[in-house]
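Lecture 7, part B: from sequences to assemblies.

Below are the input chains for today's worked example.
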Amino acid sequence: MSAVPASVDHAATAAEYPVLAVRGATKRFGSVVALDDVSIEVRRGEILGLLGDNGAGKSTLTKCISGVHQLDAGAILLDGAPTQIRSPADARFAGIETVYQDLALFDNLTPGQNFFAGRELAGPQWLPRGMRFLQQRRMDAETRVLLANLKVTLPRLDAVVAMMSGGQRQAIAVARSTVFARKVVILDEPTAALGLRESRQVLNLVATLRDQGNAVILITHNMEHVVELADRAVVLRQGRKVGELVPTKDNKQELVSMIVGA
Amino acid sequence: MPEAGNTGTSVGEAAVRAPKKQEAVPGLALGLALLSAGPVVILALLIVVLSFLSPYFLTGRNLSNILAQTAVISVVAMGQHLVILTRGIDLSVGSNVALASVVGALSFHAGAPAFLVIAVMVACGAAVGAINGLFYVFGRLPHPFIITLATLSIAKGLALQLADGRAIPGMPDAIDALGREAVWGLPGSVFVVAGVAAVLFAMAKTMVWGRWIYAVGGRPDAALRMGIPVSWVLVSVYVISGLCAGIGAVILAGRTDAGSPLFGNLLELDTIAAVIIGGASFLGGRGHLGHALIGAIMIGVIRNALNLLNVNVFFQLIVIGVVIVIAVESDVLRNYLEGRVRVMQAGRQS
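Predicted structure of the full complex, as C-alpha coordinates:
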Protein backbone atom coordinates (compact mmCIF):
# COMPACT_ATOMS: atom_id res chain seq x y z
CA MET A 1 0.00 0.00 0.00
CA SER A 2 2.94 2.33 0.47
CA ALA A 3 3.75 2.73 -3.23
CA VAL A 4 0.38 4.16 -4.16
CA PRO A 5 0.60 7.14 -6.53
CA ALA A 6 -0.88 10.40 -5.25
CA SER A 7 -3.64 10.50 -7.84
CA VAL A 8 -5.33 7.37 -6.49
CA ASP A 9 -5.13 8.47 -2.90
CA HIS A 10 -8.88 8.14 -2.49
CA ALA A 11 -8.82 4.59 -3.75
CA ALA A 12 -6.04 3.69 -1.35
CA THR A 13 -7.84 4.84 1.76
CA ALA A 14 -11.17 3.35 0.83
CA ALA A 15 -10.14 0.30 -1.12
CA GLU A 16 -10.85 -2.15 1.70
CA TYR A 17 -14.57 -2.06 1.07
CA PRO A 18 -16.59 -1.16 -2.04
CA VAL A 19 -18.34 2.21 -1.94
CA LEU A 20 -21.29 0.63 -3.76
CA ALA A 21 -22.30 -3.02 -3.58
CA VAL A 22 -25.41 -4.56 -5.05
CA ARG A 23 -26.26 -8.00 -3.63
CA GLY A 24 -28.65 -10.46 -5.23
CA ALA A 25 -30.56 -7.84 -7.18
CA THR A 26 -33.82 -9.18 -8.64
CA LYS A 27 -36.40 -7.18 -10.55
CA ARG A 28 -39.50 -8.38 -12.39
CA PHE A 29 -41.79 -6.48 -14.70
CA GLY A 30 -44.91 -8.64 -14.72
CA SER A 31 -43.77 -12.08 -15.83
CA VAL A 32 -40.52 -10.77 -17.32
CA VAL A 33 -37.49 -11.23 -15.09
CA ALA A 34 -35.34 -8.21 -15.93
CA LEU A 35 -32.71 -8.89 -13.24
CA ASP A 36 -32.02 -12.28 -11.71
CA ASP A 37 -29.79 -12.39 -8.64
CA VAL A 38 -27.17 -9.94 -9.90
CA SER A 39 -24.34 -8.78 -7.62
CA ILE A 40 -21.78 -6.09 -8.44
CA GLU A 41 -19.27 -4.02 -6.52
CA VAL A 42 -17.45 -0.77 -7.30
CA ARG A 43 -14.65 0.91 -5.40
CA ARG A 44 -13.59 4.53 -5.29
CA GLY A 45 -11.26 5.57 -8.08
CA GLU A 46 -12.38 2.69 -10.22
CA ILE A 47 -14.32 2.48 -13.49
CA LEU A 48 -16.60 -0.53 -13.83
CA GLY A 49 -17.73 -1.29 -17.37
CA LEU A 50 -21.25 -2.66 -17.50
CA LEU A 51 -21.73 -4.64 -20.69
CA GLY A 52 -24.52 -6.55 -22.31
CA ASP A 53 -26.73 -6.74 -25.35
CA ASN A 54 -29.95 -4.78 -25.61
CA GLY A 55 -32.39 -6.03 -22.98
CA ALA A 56 -29.65 -7.68 -20.92
CA GLY A 57 -30.67 -5.70 -17.82
CA LYS A 58 -27.99 -2.97 -17.74
CA SER A 59 -30.45 -0.11 -17.73
CA THR A 60 -32.74 -1.82 -15.23
CA LEU A 61 -29.84 -2.39 -12.85
CA THR A 62 -28.67 1.22 -13.04
CA LYS A 63 -32.21 2.53 -12.71
CA CYS A 64 -32.56 0.52 -9.49
CA ILE A 65 -29.35 2.07 -8.18
CA SER A 66 -30.39 5.59 -9.17
CA GLY A 67 -33.84 5.25 -7.60
CA VAL A 68 -36.00 5.21 -10.73
CA HIS A 69 -37.02 1.58 -10.03
CA GLN A 70 -37.03 -0.36 -6.77
CA LEU A 71 -35.57 -3.85 -6.41
CA ASP A 72 -38.00 -6.72 -5.77
CA ALA A 73 -35.30 -8.60 -3.89
CA GLY A 74 -31.68 -7.95 -2.99
CA ALA A 75 -29.90 -5.09 -1.32
CA ILE A 76 -27.93 -1.97 -2.18
CA LEU A 77 -25.02 -1.23 0.17
CA LEU A 78 -23.32 2.16 0.29
CA ASP A 79 -19.99 2.15 2.14
CA GLY A 80 -21.03 -1.23 3.48
CA ALA A 81 -24.34 -0.10 4.95
CA PRO A 82 -27.66 -1.30 3.47
CA THR A 83 -29.42 1.73 2.00
CA GLN A 84 -33.01 2.20 0.90
CA ILE A 85 -33.21 4.18 -2.34
CA ARG A 86 -36.84 4.98 -3.00
CA SER A 87 -36.54 7.89 -5.41
CA PRO A 88 -34.01 9.68 -7.61
CA ALA A 89 -33.85 12.37 -4.94
CA ASP A 90 -32.82 9.69 -2.36
CA ALA A 91 -30.07 8.51 -4.68
CA ARG A 92 -28.70 11.98 -5.24
CA PHE A 93 -28.85 12.67 -1.54
CA ALA A 94 -26.85 9.51 -0.91
CA GLY A 95 -24.14 10.72 -3.32
CA ILE A 96 -25.11 8.75 -6.43
CA GLU A 97 -25.20 10.76 -9.66
CA THR A 98 -26.58 9.52 -12.95
CA VAL A 99 -25.98 10.77 -16.46
CA TYR A 100 -29.02 9.52 -18.33
CA GLN A 101 -28.95 8.44 -21.91
CA ASP A 102 -31.48 11.17 -22.74
CA LEU A 103 -29.27 13.60 -20.74
CA ALA A 104 -32.23 14.97 -18.69
CA LEU A 105 -31.16 18.51 -19.51
CA PHE A 106 -33.51 21.47 -19.32
CA ASP A 107 -33.42 22.96 -22.80
CA ASN A 108 -34.92 26.22 -21.60
CA LEU A 109 -32.25 26.84 -18.95
CA THR A 110 -28.60 27.91 -19.16
CA PRO A 111 -25.72 25.50 -18.43
CA GLY A 112 -25.29 26.97 -14.94
CA GLN A 113 -28.99 26.69 -14.19
CA ASN A 114 -28.85 23.08 -15.36
CA PHE A 115 -25.90 22.27 -13.07
CA PHE A 116 -27.75 23.49 -10.02
CA ALA A 117 -31.29 22.38 -10.97
CA GLY A 118 -32.90 20.91 -7.87
CA ARG A 119 -29.91 21.94 -5.72
CA GLU A 120 -29.78 25.67 -6.22
CA LEU A 121 -27.45 27.62 -3.97
CA ALA A 122 -29.85 29.74 -1.98
CA GLY A 123 -30.52 31.23 1.41
CA PRO A 124 -31.35 31.95 4.12
CA GLN A 125 -31.30 28.38 5.37
CA TRP A 126 -34.19 28.74 7.83
CA LEU A 127 -36.69 29.24 5.00
CA PRO A 128 -38.27 26.22 3.29
CA ARG A 129 -36.19 25.18 0.29
CA GLY A 130 -38.50 26.59 -2.39
CA MET A 131 -38.83 29.99 -0.72
CA ARG A 132 -35.11 30.68 -0.43
CA PHE A 133 -33.50 33.35 -2.55
CA LEU A 134 -31.19 32.29 -5.36
CA GLN A 135 -27.52 33.14 -4.97
CA GLN A 136 -27.03 33.67 -8.65
CA ARG A 137 -23.54 35.14 -8.54
CA ARG A 138 -22.20 32.26 -6.48
CA MET A 139 -23.71 29.77 -8.89
CA ASP A 140 -22.31 31.62 -11.91
CA ALA A 141 -18.85 31.70 -10.34
CA GLU A 142 -18.91 28.00 -9.46
CA THR A 143 -20.10 27.18 -12.96
CA ARG A 144 -17.12 28.96 -14.50
CA VAL A 145 -14.68 27.24 -12.15
CA LEU A 146 -16.23 23.84 -12.81
CA LEU A 147 -16.12 24.20 -16.58
CA ALA A 148 -12.52 25.44 -16.42
CA ASN A 149 -11.48 22.50 -14.24
CA LEU A 150 -13.05 20.05 -16.65
CA LYS A 151 -11.64 21.93 -19.67
CA VAL A 152 -15.10 22.20 -21.18
CA THR A 153 -15.52 25.23 -23.41
CA LEU A 154 -18.97 26.53 -24.19
CA PRO A 155 -19.71 29.40 -26.57
CA ARG A 156 -21.88 31.29 -24.11
CA LEU A 157 -22.80 30.66 -20.50
CA ASP A 158 -25.93 32.81 -20.65
CA ALA A 159 -27.49 30.96 -23.60
CA VAL A 160 -30.02 28.19 -23.03
CA VAL A 161 -28.75 24.67 -23.71
CA ALA A 162 -31.35 24.25 -26.48
CA MET A 163 -28.97 26.26 -28.63
CA MET A 164 -25.95 24.00 -28.03
CA SER A 165 -24.53 21.11 -30.03
CA GLY A 166 -24.84 17.42 -29.12
CA GLY A 167 -21.30 17.23 -27.76
CA GLN A 168 -21.69 20.36 -25.70
CA ARG A 169 -24.95 19.08 -24.27
CA GLN A 170 -23.34 15.75 -23.38
CA ALA A 171 -20.45 17.57 -21.74
CA ILE A 172 -22.89 19.69 -19.74
CA ALA A 173 -24.76 16.58 -18.55
CA VAL A 174 -21.53 14.84 -17.48
CA ALA A 175 -20.19 18.03 -15.89
CA ARG A 176 -23.42 18.37 -13.92
CA SER A 177 -22.86 14.94 -12.39
CA THR A 178 -19.41 16.04 -11.22
CA VAL A 179 -20.82 18.99 -9.26
CA PHE A 180 -22.37 16.92 -6.56
CA ALA A 181 -21.03 13.40 -7.07
CA ARG A 182 -19.60 12.18 -3.79
CA LYS A 183 -19.62 8.42 -4.22
CA VAL A 184 -20.92 6.91 -7.41
CA VAL A 185 -21.45 8.19 -10.94
CA ILE A 186 -23.42 6.13 -13.43
CA LEU A 187 -23.06 6.97 -17.12
CA ASP A 188 -25.53 5.39 -19.53
CA GLU A 189 -23.95 5.25 -23.02
CA PRO A 190 -22.46 8.72 -22.77
CA THR A 191 -20.88 8.63 -26.23
CA ALA A 192 -23.65 6.88 -28.18
CA ALA A 193 -24.73 9.97 -30.11
CA LEU A 194 -21.35 11.67 -30.53
CA GLY A 195 -18.72 12.06 -33.18
CA LEU A 196 -15.08 11.05 -32.61
CA ARG A 197 -13.78 14.32 -31.21
CA GLU A 198 -16.76 14.91 -28.98
CA SER A 199 -16.53 11.31 -27.70
CA ARG A 200 -12.90 11.90 -26.77
CA GLN A 201 -13.84 14.95 -24.73
CA VAL A 202 -16.53 13.03 -22.85
CA LEU A 203 -14.20 10.07 -22.18
CA ASN A 204 -11.70 12.50 -20.69
CA LEU A 205 -14.45 13.77 -18.41
CA VAL A 206 -15.17 10.19 -17.33
CA ALA A 207 -11.51 9.72 -16.43
CA THR A 208 -11.66 12.97 -14.45
CA LEU A 209 -14.61 11.67 -12.48
CA ARG A 210 -12.56 8.61 -11.54
CA ASP A 211 -9.51 10.68 -10.62
CA GLN A 212 -11.70 12.73 -8.30
CA GLY A 213 -12.22 9.55 -6.31
CA ASN A 214 -15.65 8.54 -7.53
CA ALA A 215 -16.71 5.02 -8.31
CA VAL A 216 -17.80 5.14 -11.95
CA ILE A 217 -20.19 2.73 -13.64
CA LEU A 218 -19.91 3.04 -17.40
CA ILE A 219 -22.50 1.48 -19.67
CA THR A 220 -21.33 1.29 -23.25
CA HIS A 221 -21.38 -0.83 -26.39
CA ASN A 222 -18.00 0.40 -27.47
CA MET A 223 -15.32 -2.26 -26.72
CA GLU A 224 -12.47 0.18 -27.41
CA HIS A 225 -13.72 2.46 -24.67
CA VAL A 226 -14.10 -0.46 -22.25
CA VAL A 227 -10.56 -1.68 -22.86
CA GLU A 228 -9.17 1.84 -22.59
CA LEU A 229 -10.98 3.02 -19.48
CA ALA A 230 -12.57 0.24 -17.46
CA ASP A 231 -10.66 -1.40 -14.59
CA ARG A 232 -13.14 -4.26 -14.56
CA ALA A 233 -16.03 -5.30 -16.76
CA VAL A 234 -19.23 -7.06 -15.74
CA VAL A 235 -21.26 -8.75 -18.46
CA LEU A 236 -25.02 -9.22 -18.17
CA ARG A 237 -27.11 -11.48 -20.36
CA GLN A 238 -30.86 -11.96 -20.06
CA GLY A 239 -30.88 -10.44 -16.60
CA ARG A 240 -28.07 -12.59 -15.22
CA LYS A 241 -24.44 -11.82 -14.55
CA VAL A 242 -22.51 -14.12 -16.89
CA GLY A 243 -18.98 -12.91 -16.35
CA GLU A 244 -16.56 -10.48 -14.79
CA LEU A 245 -13.00 -9.81 -15.91
CA VAL A 246 -10.30 -7.21 -16.36
CA PRO A 247 -10.64 -6.05 -19.97
CA THR A 248 -7.49 -5.99 -22.09
CA LYS A 249 -6.78 -5.88 -25.81
CA ASP A 250 -6.32 -9.66 -25.74
CA ASN A 251 -9.59 -10.72 -24.15
CA LYS A 252 -11.83 -8.37 -26.12
CA GLN A 253 -13.08 -11.31 -28.18
CA GLU A 254 -13.87 -13.22 -25.00
CA LEU A 255 -15.97 -10.27 -23.78
CA VAL A 256 -17.89 -10.11 -27.03
CA SER A 257 -18.74 -13.79 -26.91
CA MET A 258 -19.90 -13.43 -23.30
CA ILE A 259 -22.19 -10.60 -24.36
CA VAL A 260 -23.80 -12.49 -27.23
CA GLY A 261 -23.69 -15.83 -25.40
CA ALA A 262 -21.80 -17.75 -28.07
CA MET B 1 -43.45 14.99 -26.58
CA PRO B 2 -40.62 17.24 -27.70
CA GLU B 3 -38.00 15.67 -25.46
CA ALA B 4 -38.41 12.22 -26.94
CA GLY B 5 -36.18 13.15 -29.83
CA ASN B 6 -33.32 14.46 -27.73
CA THR B 7 -30.63 11.92 -28.48
CA GLY B 8 -31.99 11.61 -31.97
CA THR B 9 -31.42 15.25 -32.75
CA SER B 10 -27.89 15.17 -31.39
CA VAL B 11 -27.06 12.45 -33.90
CA GLY B 12 -28.37 14.73 -36.60
CA GLU B 13 -26.41 17.68 -35.28
CA ALA B 14 -23.16 15.82 -35.11
CA ALA B 15 -23.70 14.50 -38.60
CA VAL B 16 -24.68 17.79 -40.20
CA ARG B 17 -21.75 19.72 -41.61
CA ALA B 18 -22.95 22.91 -43.19
CA PRO B 19 -19.94 25.18 -43.71
CA LYS B 20 -21.64 27.02 -46.58
CA LYS B 21 -24.59 28.07 -44.49
CA GLN B 22 -22.54 29.44 -41.64
CA GLU B 23 -22.97 33.04 -42.71
CA ALA B 24 -26.73 32.56 -42.53
CA VAL B 25 -26.60 32.36 -38.72
CA PRO B 26 -26.62 36.16 -38.12
CA GLY B 27 -29.71 36.43 -40.35
CA LEU B 28 -31.43 33.67 -38.39
CA ALA B 29 -30.42 35.27 -35.10
CA LEU B 30 -31.91 38.55 -36.28
CA GLY B 31 -35.13 36.79 -37.21
CA LEU B 32 -35.19 35.15 -33.78
CA ALA B 33 -34.60 38.44 -32.00
CA LEU B 34 -37.41 40.04 -34.00
CA LEU B 35 -39.74 37.17 -33.16
CA SER B 36 -39.05 37.35 -29.45
CA ALA B 37 -39.45 41.14 -29.46
CA GLY B 38 -42.49 40.68 -31.72
CA PRO B 39 -45.31 41.46 -29.27
CA VAL B 40 -43.70 44.70 -28.09
CA VAL B 41 -43.04 45.79 -31.67
CA ILE B 42 -46.59 44.96 -32.73
CA LEU B 43 -48.04 46.79 -29.72
CA ALA B 44 -45.95 49.88 -30.53
CA LEU B 45 -46.98 49.78 -34.21
CA LEU B 46 -50.60 49.33 -33.17
CA ILE B 47 -50.44 52.41 -30.97
CA VAL B 48 -48.81 54.53 -33.69
CA VAL B 49 -51.31 53.46 -36.36
CA LEU B 50 -54.29 53.93 -34.07
CA SER B 51 -53.25 57.40 -33.00
CA PHE B 52 -53.48 58.39 -36.67
CA LEU B 53 -56.78 56.58 -37.25
CA SER B 54 -58.61 58.06 -34.27
CA PRO B 55 -58.06 61.47 -32.68
CA TYR B 56 -59.38 60.11 -29.37
CA PHE B 57 -57.06 57.15 -29.08
CA LEU B 58 -53.96 58.84 -27.70
CA THR B 59 -55.80 61.04 -25.17
CA GLY B 60 -54.88 60.51 -21.54
CA ARG B 61 -58.44 59.71 -20.73
CA ASN B 62 -58.68 56.95 -23.30
CA LEU B 63 -55.35 55.41 -22.28
CA SER B 64 -56.37 55.42 -18.64
CA ASN B 65 -59.61 53.81 -19.77
CA ILE B 66 -57.74 51.03 -21.56
CA LEU B 67 -55.65 50.31 -18.48
CA ALA B 68 -58.75 50.26 -16.26
CA GLN B 69 -60.54 47.92 -18.63
CA THR B 70 -57.60 45.54 -18.87
CA ALA B 71 -56.81 45.50 -15.14
CA VAL B 72 -58.78 42.30 -14.50
CA ILE B 73 -57.43 40.47 -17.56
CA SER B 74 -53.89 41.58 -16.64
CA VAL B 75 -53.99 40.34 -13.06
CA VAL B 76 -55.63 37.01 -13.91
CA ALA B 77 -53.38 36.53 -16.96
CA MET B 78 -50.31 36.72 -14.70
CA GLY B 79 -51.59 33.70 -12.77
CA GLN B 80 -52.55 31.95 -15.97
CA HIS B 81 -49.04 32.61 -17.25
CA LEU B 82 -47.46 30.68 -14.36
CA VAL B 83 -49.79 27.76 -15.08
CA ILE B 84 -48.96 27.82 -18.79
CA LEU B 85 -45.24 27.92 -17.93
CA THR B 86 -45.70 24.45 -16.41
CA ARG B 87 -47.48 23.25 -19.59
CA GLY B 88 -50.84 23.51 -17.85
CA ILE B 89 -54.03 25.47 -18.37
CA ASP B 90 -56.52 26.97 -15.92
CA LEU B 91 -60.02 27.15 -17.40
CA SER B 92 -61.67 27.92 -14.08
CA VAL B 93 -60.44 31.51 -13.61
CA GLY B 94 -63.56 33.21 -15.04
CA SER B 95 -66.00 31.29 -12.84
CA ASN B 96 -63.58 31.71 -9.97
CA VAL B 97 -63.83 35.51 -10.32
CA ALA B 98 -67.64 35.25 -10.30
CA LEU B 99 -67.71 33.01 -7.22
CA ALA B 100 -65.21 35.16 -5.31
CA SER B 101 -67.16 38.34 -6.07
CA VAL B 102 -70.43 36.77 -4.90
CA VAL B 103 -68.86 35.43 -1.72
CA GLY B 104 -67.36 38.88 -1.13
CA ALA B 105 -70.71 40.65 -1.64
CA LEU B 106 -72.45 38.20 0.71
CA SER B 107 -69.83 38.66 3.41
CA PHE B 108 -70.15 42.45 3.05
CA HIS B 109 -73.89 42.22 3.55
CA ALA B 110 -73.30 39.95 6.53
CA GLY B 111 -71.46 42.88 8.10
CA ALA B 112 -67.80 42.09 7.39
CA PRO B 113 -65.41 45.07 7.29
CA ALA B 114 -63.62 45.97 4.05
CA PHE B 115 -60.32 44.22 4.79
CA LEU B 116 -62.18 41.03 5.67
CA VAL B 117 -64.25 41.20 2.46
CA ILE B 118 -61.03 41.51 0.45
CA ALA B 119 -59.43 38.65 2.38
CA VAL B 120 -62.48 36.46 1.83
CA MET B 121 -62.47 37.10 -1.93
CA VAL B 122 -58.76 36.40 -2.33
CA ALA B 123 -58.98 33.31 -0.11
CA CYS B 124 -61.97 32.02 -2.07
CA GLY B 125 -59.98 32.37 -5.30
CA ALA B 126 -56.95 30.63 -3.81
CA ALA B 127 -59.13 27.81 -2.45
CA VAL B 128 -60.56 27.02 -5.89
CA GLY B 129 -56.99 27.11 -7.21
CA ALA B 130 -55.86 24.71 -4.49
CA ILE B 131 -58.65 22.29 -5.43
CA ASN B 132 -57.52 22.45 -9.07
CA GLY B 133 -53.90 21.81 -8.17
CA LEU B 134 -54.47 19.07 -5.61
CA PHE B 135 -56.87 17.10 -7.81
CA TYR B 136 -54.66 17.48 -10.85
CA VAL B 137 -51.52 16.28 -9.05
CA PHE B 138 -52.72 13.84 -6.41
CA GLY B 139 -55.80 12.71 -8.35
CA ARG B 140 -53.25 11.68 -11.00
CA LEU B 141 -55.19 13.36 -13.79
CA PRO B 142 -53.57 13.22 -17.22
CA HIS B 143 -54.08 16.93 -17.89
CA PRO B 144 -55.30 19.97 -15.88
CA PHE B 145 -57.82 20.69 -18.64
CA ILE B 146 -60.27 18.24 -17.09
CA ILE B 147 -60.20 19.34 -13.46
CA THR B 148 -60.26 23.06 -14.28
CA LEU B 149 -63.16 22.46 -16.68
CA ALA B 150 -65.00 20.78 -13.81
CA THR B 151 -64.29 23.62 -11.38
CA LEU B 152 -65.31 26.11 -14.08
CA SER B 153 -68.74 24.51 -13.97
CA ILE B 154 -68.86 23.99 -10.21
CA ALA B 155 -67.74 27.53 -9.30
CA LYS B 156 -70.19 29.05 -11.79
CA GLY B 157 -73.05 26.94 -10.45
CA LEU B 158 -72.12 27.73 -6.87
CA ALA B 159 -71.97 31.47 -7.61
CA LEU B 160 -75.41 31.40 -9.31
CA GLN B 161 -76.84 29.36 -6.43
CA LEU B 162 -75.44 31.63 -3.70
CA ALA B 163 -76.52 34.84 -5.47
CA ASP B 164 -79.84 33.39 -6.56
CA GLY B 165 -78.90 34.11 -10.15
CA ARG B 166 -78.70 37.88 -9.68
CA ALA B 167 -76.04 40.51 -9.17
CA ILE B 168 -75.66 41.61 -5.54
CA PRO B 169 -75.11 45.38 -5.40
CA GLY B 170 -73.04 47.00 -2.68
CA MET B 171 -69.34 46.76 -1.83
CA PRO B 172 -67.27 48.41 0.91
CA ASP B 173 -65.99 51.86 0.04
CA ALA B 174 -62.36 50.75 0.18
CA ILE B 175 -63.03 48.30 -2.66
CA ASP B 176 -65.08 50.78 -4.68
CA ALA B 177 -62.14 53.18 -4.46
CA LEU B 178 -60.18 50.84 -6.76
CA GLY B 179 -62.53 51.75 -9.59
CA ARG B 180 -62.19 55.48 -9.00
CA GLU B 181 -59.44 57.74 -10.14
CA ALA B 182 -56.50 57.65 -7.75
CA VAL B 183 -53.34 59.43 -8.95
CA TRP B 184 -52.24 60.86 -12.32
CA GLY B 185 -55.67 60.20 -13.78
CA LEU B 186 -55.21 56.46 -13.25
CA PRO B 187 -57.69 54.27 -11.39
CA GLY B 188 -56.59 52.49 -8.21
CA SER B 189 -56.89 49.12 -9.94
CA VAL B 190 -53.89 49.92 -12.14
CA PHE B 191 -51.72 50.21 -9.04
CA VAL B 192 -53.02 46.87 -7.77
CA VAL B 193 -51.97 45.31 -11.09
CA ALA B 194 -48.54 46.94 -10.84
CA GLY B 195 -48.13 45.74 -7.25
CA VAL B 196 -49.09 42.14 -8.06
CA ALA B 197 -46.79 42.22 -11.10
CA ALA B 198 -43.87 43.48 -9.01
CA VAL B 199 -44.32 40.82 -6.32
CA LEU B 200 -44.80 37.93 -8.76
CA PHE B 201 -41.90 39.10 -10.92
CA ALA B 202 -39.58 39.27 -7.92
CA MET B 203 -40.71 35.83 -6.70
CA ALA B 204 -40.28 34.19 -10.10
CA LYS B 205 -36.91 35.81 -10.65
CA THR B 206 -35.19 35.59 -7.28
CA MET B 207 -36.70 32.59 -5.51
CA VAL B 208 -35.82 28.92 -5.94
CA TRP B 209 -39.55 28.36 -6.51
CA GLY B 210 -39.39 30.50 -9.65
CA ARG B 211 -36.48 28.52 -11.04
CA TRP B 212 -38.35 25.29 -10.34
CA ILE B 213 -41.38 26.49 -12.32
CA TYR B 214 -39.18 26.91 -15.38
CA ALA B 215 -37.51 23.53 -14.81
CA VAL B 216 -40.84 21.73 -14.42
CA GLY B 217 -42.20 23.46 -17.52
CA GLY B 218 -39.06 22.79 -19.55
CA ARG B 219 -38.78 19.10 -18.75
CA PRO B 220 -41.12 17.56 -16.14
CA ASP B 221 -39.48 14.10 -16.12
CA ALA B 222 -36.00 15.53 -15.68
CA ALA B 223 -37.24 17.83 -12.92
CA LEU B 224 -38.41 14.76 -11.04
CA ARG B 225 -35.08 12.98 -11.55
CA MET B 226 -33.19 16.08 -10.35
CA GLY B 227 -35.09 15.94 -7.07
CA ILE B 228 -37.34 18.97 -7.65
CA PRO B 229 -40.65 18.57 -5.74
CA VAL B 230 -42.67 18.65 -8.96
CA SER B 231 -46.03 17.94 -7.32
CA TRP B 232 -45.83 20.92 -5.01
CA VAL B 233 -44.55 23.24 -7.70
CA LEU B 234 -47.59 22.31 -9.79
CA VAL B 235 -50.02 22.78 -6.89
CA SER B 236 -48.46 26.17 -6.12
CA VAL B 237 -49.02 27.61 -9.60
CA TYR B 238 -52.72 26.69 -9.51
CA VAL B 239 -53.05 28.28 -6.07
CA ILE B 240 -51.39 31.46 -7.35
CA SER B 241 -53.63 31.43 -10.42
CA GLY B 242 -56.70 31.16 -8.16
CA LEU B 243 -55.32 33.88 -5.91
CA CYS B 244 -54.94 36.18 -8.92
CA ALA B 245 -58.55 35.40 -9.86
CA GLY B 246 -59.55 36.47 -6.32
CA ILE B 247 -57.68 39.76 -6.77
CA GLY B 248 -59.36 40.15 -10.17
CA ALA B 249 -62.72 39.74 -8.40
CA VAL B 250 -61.82 42.53 -5.98
CA ILE B 251 -60.96 44.87 -8.88
CA LEU B 252 -64.12 44.01 -10.80
CA ALA B 253 -66.29 44.39 -7.69
CA GLY B 254 -64.71 47.80 -7.12
CA ARG B 255 -65.45 48.96 -10.64
CA THR B 256 -69.09 47.88 -10.51
CA ASP B 257 -69.85 48.20 -6.77
CA ALA B 258 -71.33 44.70 -6.86
CA GLY B 259 -70.69 40.97 -6.83
CA SER B 260 -72.22 38.95 -9.63
CA PRO B 261 -72.36 35.31 -10.78
CA LEU B 262 -72.09 36.65 -14.34
CA PHE B 263 -68.67 38.22 -13.77
CA GLY B 264 -65.66 36.82 -15.57
CA ASN B 265 -67.55 35.37 -18.49
CA LEU B 266 -65.02 33.98 -21.01
CA LEU B 267 -62.18 35.43 -18.90
CA GLU B 268 -60.35 32.09 -19.18
CA LEU B 269 -60.13 32.59 -22.95
CA ASP B 270 -59.04 36.22 -22.63
CA THR B 271 -56.27 35.36 -20.20
CA ILE B 272 -55.00 32.40 -22.21
CA ALA B 273 -55.09 34.62 -25.31
CA ALA B 274 -53.18 37.35 -23.46
CA VAL B 275 -50.41 34.95 -22.40
CA ILE B 276 -50.03 33.50 -25.88
CA ILE B 277 -50.36 36.81 -27.76
CA GLY B 278 -47.80 38.31 -25.39
CA GLY B 279 -45.26 35.74 -26.56
CA ALA B 280 -45.06 33.07 -23.86
CA SER B 281 -44.83 29.52 -25.20
CA PHE B 282 -47.53 26.88 -24.93
CA LEU B 283 -44.72 24.32 -24.98
CA GLY B 284 -43.83 25.24 -21.41
CA GLY B 285 -40.91 26.85 -19.64
CA ARG B 286 -40.64 29.87 -21.93
CA GLY B 287 -41.78 33.44 -21.27
CA HIS B 288 -42.02 35.89 -18.42
CA LEU B 289 -44.66 38.00 -16.70
CA GLY B 290 -44.08 40.89 -19.09
CA HIS B 291 -45.47 38.70 -21.86
CA ALA B 292 -48.76 38.23 -20.01
CA LEU B 293 -49.04 41.98 -19.34
CA ILE B 294 -48.22 43.00 -22.90
CA GLY B 295 -50.71 40.45 -24.22
CA ALA B 296 -53.42 41.74 -21.89
CA ILE B 297 -52.78 45.35 -22.92
CA MET B 298 -52.75 44.34 -26.56
CA ILE B 299 -56.18 42.75 -26.20
CA GLY B 300 -57.38 45.93 -24.44
CA VAL B 301 -55.96 48.14 -27.18
CA ILE B 302 -57.49 46.07 -29.98
CA ARG B 303 -60.94 46.12 -28.33
CA ASN B 304 -60.72 49.81 -27.56
CA ALA B 305 -59.61 50.64 -31.10
CA LEU B 306 -62.37 48.60 -32.69
CA ASN B 307 -64.84 50.44 -30.48
CA LEU B 308 -63.43 53.86 -31.40
CA LEU B 309 -63.53 52.92 -35.07
CA ASN B 310 -67.14 51.75 -34.72
CA VAL B 311 -66.40 48.16 -35.67
CA ASN B 312 -69.14 45.87 -34.37
CA VAL B 313 -68.66 43.58 -31.39
CA PHE B 314 -68.93 40.34 -33.36
CA PHE B 315 -66.00 41.36 -35.50
CA GLN B 316 -63.89 41.99 -32.36
CA LEU B 317 -64.12 38.29 -31.49
CA ILE B 318 -62.88 37.38 -34.96
CA VAL B 319 -59.94 39.79 -34.74
CA ILE B 320 -58.83 38.46 -31.35
CA GLY B 321 -59.07 34.90 -32.70
CA VAL B 322 -56.93 35.72 -35.71
CA VAL B 323 -54.34 37.40 -33.49
CA ILE B 324 -54.16 34.23 -31.35
CA VAL B 325 -53.47 32.09 -34.44
CA ILE B 326 -50.70 34.46 -35.52
CA ALA B 327 -49.16 34.39 -32.03
CA VAL B 328 -49.17 30.58 -31.78
CA GLU B 329 -47.72 30.21 -35.27
CA SER B 330 -44.91 32.63 -34.48
CA ASP B 331 -44.12 30.50 -31.42
CA VAL B 332 -43.83 27.43 -33.66
CA LEU B 333 -41.68 29.41 -36.10
CA ARG B 334 -39.43 30.56 -33.25
CA ASN B 335 -38.85 26.97 -32.15
CA TYR B 336 -38.06 25.95 -35.72
CA LEU B 337 -35.55 28.79 -36.14
CA GLU B 338 -33.85 27.91 -32.87
CA GLY B 339 -33.45 24.38 -34.16
CA ARG B 340 -31.78 25.72 -37.32
CA VAL B 341 -29.38 27.89 -35.33
CA ARG B 342 -28.42 24.89 -33.22
CA VAL B 343 -27.72 22.69 -36.24
CA MET B 344 -25.53 25.39 -37.76
CA GLN B 345 -23.56 26.00 -34.61
CA ALA B 346 -22.88 22.28 -34.40
CA GLY B 347 -21.71 22.35 -38.00
CA ARG B 348 -19.48 25.32 -37.38
CA GLN B 349 -17.88 23.68 -34.35
CA SER B 350 -16.80 20.41 -35.85
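Note for the exam: The domain at 2-349 of chain B is CATH 1.10.3470 (ABC transporter involved in vitamin B12 uptake, BtuC). Keep this in mind when comparing with the next example.
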